[in-house]
Amino acid sequence: xxxxxxxxxxxxxxxxxxxxxxxxxxxxxxxxxxxxxxxxxxxxxxxxxxxxxxxxxxxxxxxxxxxxxxxxxxxxxxxxxxxxxxxxxxxxxxxxxxxxxxxxxxxxxxxxxxxxxxxxxxxxxxxxxxxxxxxxxxxxxxxxxxxxxxxxxxxxxxxxxxxxxxxxxxxxxxxxxxxxxxxxxxxxxxxxxxxxxxxxxxxxxxxxxxxxxxxxxxxxx
Length: 221
Description:
The chain is built from 9 helices and 6 strands. With 221 residues, it is mainly alpha-helical.
């Protein structure tokens, strides 16, 4: 479903924002947010997205998806983490400290991608002005790291896409060790050669719709 949001921002005082929103297409899974967009533009686009959500009648969620990958950042307590920051951190970890099969070894000396991501989150939490509230099982630092993990999955790639790459089960990434495979995958994510989480889910949804619509059973019914 697509709704062209013309004239939905007529009440906005910024004519540039109004003109831009007139050409915005709010799609079921999101809209493109241009890098450096003004506050007025963002406000008008949000209004348009909310109207589209109301008019769709299905309660579908709408999000603003940044156009530049480095705009898709994790922020908490004054700490900002981009995909580029994460790649730079992983490049410094020796190959001998990477593993397959499980998130981390019992002695904690080796980790898969997500184990390294969690450790990175704990490390970055030390720079935060404020930390998330601790729970009965996790310190504030660990909650911070868990939120970084959640950000990566919801923004860039889920465990279902990373684990096969890390463990050498993906034919697209035949590099000889988990570090080189994961870094190749993350570079592809950053360049757009691999779809991020939103684009990947869109593709799966459309594929499912196609299969349901064009199945042999339906075509012959």
